Amino acid sequence: MTKHSLPEHPQYQLSETRFWIQRLSKTSIRALHILGVAISSGGFIYHLDKALWLNWWLLAMFSGVLMMVQEIYRSKLWLIQLKGVLTFIKLGLLASIALLPQQQPNIYITVLFTFSLYCSWTCRITALLDLASKGY
Predict the structure, then answer these.
(1) Is the pLDDT of residue 113 over 80?
(2) What percent of the chain is modeled with pLDDT above 90?
């Protein structure tokens, strides 16, 4: 049994190699997603020529879909957990840009700001829960 497996659930045990493959693939896809979002943001917010940023936007979209597929494959419960629900809310907000194109920069910045706060908040809560479980 590895350090990363769950001892009370033998069916969820991962080999060390499989754990690292999953972790590195997830990290790589997330890095591509962040890169695509970061580079396409300028074009999207400042209404630059689409040819300059469209490929980066597509990278962000495809990597985002791939991250969702990974999470859903890992556990169908992701769809109803907070992270999954918030991902669909984010997609809904981004889709609303088609209905409110004049609000495109405001909606996009709201999505980025709101979900960066959410990520920061969940990381801190997770760290606190981890410390509490260890008796600190």
Answers:
(1) yes
(2) 35
The position carrying tokens 């400042």 is 46
pLDDT digits (tens, 9 = 90+) for 83-100: 888 889 989 998 998 899
Question: Position 76: which residue type?
Answer: K
In Å, what is the CA distance from 30 to each residue of 61, 64, 67, 102?
A: 11, 8, 7, 29
**∠ CA(36), CA(37), CA(43), 5° rounding?**
95
Six-digit token pair at 25?
């693939």
How far is residue 132's CA from residue 128's CA, in Å, rounded to a whole number? 6
d(Cα 64, Cα 48) in Å, to the nearest integer? 23
Give me the amino acid identity at 131: L
